[in-house]
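Bench log. Compound arrived from synthesis this morning; before running ITC I wanted a structural hypothesis for how ribose-5-phosphate sits in the protein. Inputs:
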Amino acid sequence: MEKIVIVGPASQILGVKIAKELGFESINTEIKKFPDGENYVRINIEDETIVAGKEVIIVQSTGPSANSDQNARLIELFMMIDSVKRMGAEKIIVVAPYLAYARQDKIFRPGESQFGNAIIQLINALGIDELYVVDIHAPSILKDCSCKAINIDSMKLLADYIKLKGMKDIVVVSPDKGAIERAGAFAKHIGENVPVEIIEKERDKITGNIKMEGSLNLKDKDVVISDDIISTGGTMASAIKLAKDSGAKSISVVATHALLLQQAKYRIIKAGADEIIGTDSIDNEASKVSLAKTIADYLK
Ligand code: R5P
């Protein structure tokens, strides 16, 4: 079956790179907003038979950025799926490295929505054949997809980047008990004996404010703090402060999805980090590690 890649507006670099890795044609999209706020997406083709009968890979991360929010990115994704379906795509594969709302996978207070699960159900209900995400915050929500759903691990790619820095005395720090598994895998990829220190983070269920306490074994170490997401940078800034107070020699922060919203860059660098490292799941200045080859390998 012939295959094509539709490059969503949120993943213009990653989408083209994946298409190049696969050796498939890539097609971009045209977007706008109507005066009433509704989104418009058009796949940039004049002849719909280009899509009919093909395997279509749609690449669209759904993170917020300076020029769009995650709701718009999700709607654009839904519209692209709907569009290729209408044009007769034989198979539809969605690559959404960052899946918005995946952090809303639990009920903390009465009356809340478990929307992470609902997002998976919605994408599934549009009639796709395969879904690929990267280091999704709550892998359990993928069980709500009846089609093939794969969570790709980016820890080796991020570890390879850190290894190139030639640091001698690395300690990986997990800023949250929930991120232990990922931090452990990340440390192992850097080196068999790289230790992991864990911080206990408490988040107020109402205000969202975080509290971190404790002392870590980081004297004169090259500290790499690893998390799945950097949103406002609050978690990282607190973890950096603890690392500095514990005597760290250098501090790098690593996240699969470095959203870097609001004052995140300022907070992280001001707190004392030397570098912010992310993947091209999110297209910004922290996208130093490309997911393209790894994702393409899964799609082959
Ligand atoms: C939450 O559990 C996530 O793993 C991240 O720690 C969190 O999303 C980071 O958010 P922020 O950068 O706003 O502290």
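What the model suggests: Residues 137, 176, 178-179, 227-235 surround ribose-5-phosphate (CB under 6 Å). The two ends are 13 Å apart (CA to CA).
ITC booked for Thursday regardless.
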